[in-house]
Queue: 2 jobs
Job 1
Amino acid sequence: MVVAEVVIELKEGVADPEGMNTKKALNLLGWDVEGVKSGKIFEIDLGEDIDEDEAREEVEEMCKRLLANPVIQTYDITLEG
Amino acid sequence: MVVAEVVIELKEGVADPEGMNTKKALNLLGWDVEGVKSGKIFEIDLGEDIDEDEAREEVEEMCKRLLANPVIQTYDITLEG
């Protein structure tokens, strides 16, 4: 079973209100954190019949077409199994 | 600089509508994926003046109190730097 882990984060310079508000909330709770970045993660089960090169290529296409917005987001793909 | 990466996912058995709809959308686009799990990721900058044990303990407390809902979510902490 090949599983791809896709981490999607905002590019540097793009406003991250969820991250900023999480930082504020942590500060209010007494933790002295200096910054928080928020992001999304998808674990995609690609089944058995696929090799690593093919898997990476497919998942990159999925990121471009559906999972990420390449204008403001970066994606990072890790394959397991 | 110590940065903690926190991955928050739904526990097994908890409905994941975002994951299910992402799977459906990928299938409709022609990809034969067998399952998608969605989750969140936070990168927390803890500053310089903290050692690894202390950092892990603090971030675990942050997960319990703010970042995750331990009833339905799991969290996984990785420290860098």
Job 2
Amino acid sequence: MKRIGFLGLGTMGSPMAVNLCKAGYTVYGWNRSDGKTGPLLAAGGRAAASIRAAVRGADVVITMLPDAPQVEEVAYGPEGILANTRPGALLIDMSTIAPQSSVELARNAAAHGIRVLDAPVAGGEAGAVEGILSIMVGGEADDLEEARPVFEALGKTITRCGTHGLGQTVKAANQLVLAINIQACAEAVVFLEKSGVDLEAALDVLSGGLAGSNVLTRKKTNFLNRDYTPSFRMGLHHKDMGIVTDTARAIGAVIPLGGIAAQLMASAMARGDAEIDHSALLHGVELLSGYDRPQE
Amino acid sequence: MKRIGFLGLGTMGSPMAVNLCKAGYTVYGWNRSDGKTGPLLAAGGRAAASIRAAVRGADVVITMLPDAPQVEEVAYGPEGILANTRPGALLIDMSTIAPQSSVELARNAAAHGIRVLDAPVAGGEAGAVEGILSIMVGGEADDLEEARPVFEALGKTITRCGTHGLGQTVKAANQLVLAINIQACAEAVVFLEKSGVDLEAALDVLSGGLAGSNVLTRKKTNFLNRDYTPSFRMGLHHKDMGIVTDTARAIGAVIPLGGIAAQLMASAMARGDAEIDHSALLHGVELLSGYDRPQE
Amino acid sequence: MKRIGFLGLGTMGSPMAVNLCKAGYTVYGWNRSDGKTGPLLAAGGRAAASIRAAVRGADVVITMLPDAPQVEEVAYGPEGILANTRPGALLIDMSTIAPQSSVELARNAAAHGIRVLDAPVAGGEAGAVEGILSIMVGGEADDLEEARPVFEALGKTITRCGTHGLGQTVKAANQLVLAINIQACAEAVVFLEKSGVDLEAALDVLSGGLAGSNVLTRKKTNFLNRDYTPSFRMGLHHKDMGIVTDTARAIGAVIPLGGIAAQLMASAMARGDAEIDHSALLHGVELLSGYDRPQE
Amino acid sequence: MKRIGFLGLGTMGSPMAVNLCKAGYTVYGWNRSDGKTGPLLAAGGRAAASIRAAVRGADVVITMLPDAPQVEEVAYGPEGILANTRPGALLIDMSTIAPQSSVELARNAAAHGIRVLDAPVAGGEAGAVEGILSIMVGGEADDLEEARPVFEALGKTITRCGTHGLGQTVKAANQLVLAINIQACAEAVVFLEKSGVDLEAALDVLSGGLAGSNVLTRKKTNFLNRDYTPSFRMGLHHKDMGIVTDTARAIGAVIPLGGIAAQLMASAMARGDAEIDHSALLHGVELLSGYDRPQE
């Protein structure tokens, strides 16, 4: 399993493809828009001019794309992955898409003799660059074992969550909890500041107890400085909340806080915060609270 | 500062009073209901037959009571703390009550020449027994310095949050974030289980990423086993959510998730879950989702 | 039953006192702040210089005040209603206060031999002026019969809701449903306008079906013109939502939409909309949706 | 315009097709499942054995189907409406589907020279039988004028809401407001009953004021008797709430109460209430409030 077709060389995909080169794989990279192959070429990879060129002869095809429509566009049709990948190959979709879309992809690929794993990741751009992503895998256990060396070039934690789509389910649950935790902190920040508490001291106290969380620790300076330099963009989290609410609806899981958090994230989008960090949910709480933070 | 009157020898107060004895203080303990002084006496403390007897001659008076009405009942009136403590003494209220009640207590005590600190704690019964509570202090900085040796006999982290009431404000923010984090996890648990994911594996994945939290780690077995042996009782958290929503309303901090979390905790109370652990918010999500977990 | 002491000559109380004069009662009016007795005097009523002067010799005492603290201030204490009204008289509190406060008032008054009805009203200033208020009465049925002629001078619909406090309970339920209905319309307005629908035509369609409501009909021009001339001020409805959420909490009634509606009304307050009409909940939805309505 | 192909002879479609016969139209009815053509035949209509047979030669084709997938299934493909209807004919889709699906249908039909109106209805089965539906029309004004005689055989109120899809938008807004109003009443019912108020008297009081609504009036006996005989089934309203939340998300309209109402309706579905009346949202509030209504 030496040759990999890698489709989607964006913020996440590009460093992932580079790490695969470094691990000794022959990587043929393709991206819809031009000008994304530089890092891959520098790492010894090759640029493919078409999906067909990227996947032909590949043992493994990896997709890292924004959402299900993009995955479906590269997977299906006469120029797509399924029509041009050799039977017996393994298609690993590392995009974050709806569980149901992953299930359908696996079913459609099976008709071509292609096995599929859904393998969305957590860890952000930094995790992609450093090769320490957390990878949530849905699909056959044997296929995961076959793919393990590939995954180990990309991430640190590799977890099989169950059958097709369940990697996506765990990713969705992650985004659900994360959105709510951020909003919880945002509500606490305004509550504390409006009361006149020293915010940094207070957040440190909260971090030390049962209310402590990775959001509190890692987003602390974002909250303190209203610094919304994107680590994970609101627009992506908003997309994920669509997956969360659709999936919850489909399976009959009732998520009252998730439902409101999705509305508040939609509000951030409507107010123009798509391109900044998701910690900017704090914006919305300030707005609702008529709160204009005093300048120091 | 050697003599301490300690009012309220319940689950939290009793081990706290014991730790003060161990640290060398002369502790006069009092409790409204009988039969609570055993551990204190065993540690070398003394039982006071009345509030008056507990506080007379004390350098420091500590209250550890369920809520503001109980604090006000022991503080005010001819038999109460303010009327019977020597001017110049320090009253430390370690109960969790509304910030506004703490402000009023400080103002009323000042008229008697008594200084007040609000000093609610986090860390639960285990933290009280081991003397490793997190203590959030509101009041004058000098008074905190004077009380520091007392606090150090009780806790590990001692943080001045600001003026009178702001210790309570930070405690309230803590309970706000905590309730929401628990509910977030509860929603994720049903979302994951209904999808057919292995719950333990999934929670471990979430714990490792930005969605990770102390709730996920410390309440994991509660969620996995539906074990609601109380570490912190729903009824107490419900009381605290009343403080949170009242205070938010008073200061104009808008807390959409907090508002819903408070309703869901009120639902737990209405359904009879007052005496079990607050992680039983999961009960409510199961109920809403018509989810009856398959027996193994 | 000819002599009435009337306490609270505000926007509602003043025209109510006038209507009682017109119905033939001898009305002694009192108001905390000066300059409110003009309409009453013009209608043949008398100005009382103190609570004591207003209630002395009265068969019926009526209070029409902003909230429970004001009612309690005029009711209790040596200068208050209970100490200065003759035993056997009837105290009718027409203020909107918490049911529990009404229950306590009735209990305290009973110790003075004074009977109490809680009788909050709906219908607004127009209803007060025209004497067509809807009156929700809690207390003894016999007392209501005795008071009926008085009520008939003030309102059109007089309903006994049950024992002490239950008039307030029905009023609270009214304010709960009303706040939610307004917010529902506000959400629909932004939904429709952002889609490009002609708003007036759409609201007319909604009014004609099961979604129709008095809010849709009577507030239609407020929504269409963003005209928030106060008919019922946000600040008063916000006060009422505090009663709603406190009472729901006390009785174990879970109100998810009510909880959110209360937060959104608190947001309106925090953003400075206290003095405009409660239909300005639409402001908040526009803000959340980043919606700046195109000028015609 | 004398010949009509009518696709979908369900609870709503069957009486609508009958009314068209009565108005003098030649109606060819088709339904996916058998055994639905009885009333149409009795009214002088004809049964079509296929979509093709129903639409061939028709001046107007009407679809009345559960949701967008069913509409798309009968519209597209070689056996579908677009391929078999004569250019110049008018396709009126009276189903309740997503506005975006209506826009796409209109665009696809235009390529076949077929004009489209979206014309969802309100008024329920009774309105369909009596021919007094409220019809919300999106599409060209000229096309509406051409179709007006057809609409007048079916409904009482015919409103042009704007271009393609905007009839659906108004229907969605209707379902949004309606779901929230029902839930508001449900919360009030439990609030009132748990307080001990006579429910019927209280609902009558609310109906008379600004909180009054068609839900309060028409669903009163459902609430009083917990009679959930379906007038409009929860399952259909749940489907509509999916359209509401998807559309709101797509256009950036933030609907906090709508988001929660959708969750609570999803809860009703998950708990098995799909086939009963949507007023059974009251079930959910009872459950959350741990409320078991005392038997009379």
